[in-house]
Amino acid sequence: ERKLMESPAEQQVIEIYAKRAKEYEKKLADVAQALETDRAYLKYRVKALMDLRASSEDIEAARRELALLPKTTAAAQELWTRAKEESLSRAKPLAGMPPHVQAFAGQPEGSAQEQDQFTSSRNNFIALVFCLMLGTVGLPHLLTRFYTTPSISEARTSVAWSLLFIGLLYMAAPALAVLVKWEVMSQLVGQDITALPAWMAQWSRVDGSLISFADVNGDSRLQFSELKLGADILMLATPEIAGLPYVVSGLVAAGGLAAALSTADGLLLTIGNALSHDLAYQGRTDSNYPMKRVMLSKFALLVVALIAAYFAAQKSTGILNLVTASFSFAAAAFVPALIAGCCWPRATRAGALAGMWVGMGVTCFYIAINMPWVRQYWSLEGSGLWWGIQPVSAGVFGVALGTLALLAVSWLTPNPIERTEPDGQYT
After folding, report:
1. What is the pTM of this model?
2. pLDDT tens, position by position, 323-340
3. What is the arithmetic mean of pLDDT over 293-305?
4. What is the H or E stretch that residue 99 is in?
5. pLDDT at position 317, please?
6. Residues 6+ away with beta carbon under 8 Å from 144
7. Which of 165, 180, 191, 261 has the greatest CB tally within 10 Å of its CB?
8. In a 3-state reduction of DSSP, which class is residue 211?
9. b or e along 267-282 (b: 16 or more beta carbons within 10 Å of the residue's beta carbon)?
10. Residue range 346-351: average pLDDT?
């Protein structure tokens, strides 16, 4: 990384991107005038090439550039704003990527702004880890997996085995990231632009947003800032980056798809069964009820799947934010009541319900109040963050306030007379 940051060619690419960012900034100062100027220039260029009887390739390239020009000022502003932000990120050392040994953004011993950035990054990391840990404990489709164990001791043993394999996976992921980064920086960067590996052209044809590269400084060598690798392509392209055949990438994709489908199936089955049980089961004992309940659960599963597919098709936000927020919801809604029910004999039904409602309500409120359209609709100014915590980690506040609500309501309500212990005895 230090060699790349000190490379003259890399510095040249950074300067070019910084110059492009300034050009886009000038265009954004008067979008309409800049769009009209670009359109007039491209039309003049096409006509000049035709008058000079230039090659058909040059004329076609100029016409294509004219056709790709935004049609309206709104489209131009959106396009140029996005291009400006990308150029600014590319104009940073290592294309805006922090050094590998730097765990958090900012500097703990830098300026006041860098110290604030470091503190905020560290706090958000800790809050995210907290939500992911407790959220995993409270995910319903994972809790139902323990129904397959015949006894409590075997359930505890299965937890130990799960932690072992989860630990192996979480230790392997950072190691894989280091290996991929080393392979890209040491083997790919610096190669002749015409002799790049075939997998780069193949994946760029699949989707240009996954991987793209351009000879910005014209030295016919690939620099790190000239390469753009999407986060979604790294895992799929890793086998080919390491020199393995393409079939290994197919196996990785198949494994990821199987994991996603199994997770989705578990969630749908849990939601369908919960709805059929909570909405239809009222202590019924008639002989036809089991069949009706199965049919109702399948119908509920289908309805939930269609609703989920509709919202997924909208692509209103990134999947990473949605998945992370689900852990916050699970942690805030279920974990305080789950732990209190197992470890605190004084917990009551009313206290558990209060903790669940307060935890879920606080989490929903914090996420909603920090949505841009909500703040714009209610004309809310400034930052809505509490202590700089991002909305995806809202479970931190939900768990804390939900636990307080559970404790307070449990102490204010009568002590439960009977309580079932894990060994089946009553006290």
Report:
1. 0.75
2. 888 899 999 999 999 999
3. 86
4. none
5. 67
6. 266, 270
7. 180
8. strand
9. bbebbbbebbeeeeee
10. 92
